[in-house]
Amino acid sequence: MVRAGQEVQIPKREVEIFSARIVSFSFPEVTIEMEVSVGTYIRSIARDIGERLGLAGYVTMLHRNKIEHLDEILARKIEDITPEDRLSYESIFPGFDIISPEAEILEKLYN
Hints:
Elements: E1 17-26, E2 29-36, H1 42-53, E3 66-67, E4 70-71, H2 89-92, H3 103-110
């Protein structure tokens, strides 16, 4: 929308920052490691920090190393994946029940 010249109003929302650590700083660049709640926009945090400092804050590199309980330690290069690397449904979706609907219900779901 911005590229098309339209003004965008981003609604404010409450987020949690569980931890934040400055990894490196060499003005004007700073590297920050953060652990945040689901739905947090890191680019918005960079913008807000920049505004408070009277600067233009923006993200030049973003690396997500964990989503919920899935950590990047589980990641593999496509060419290195083996059958043993396959994750179970339970490990991806802990706490979700597995259901086995009757054939009639499955037929309706397929349609």
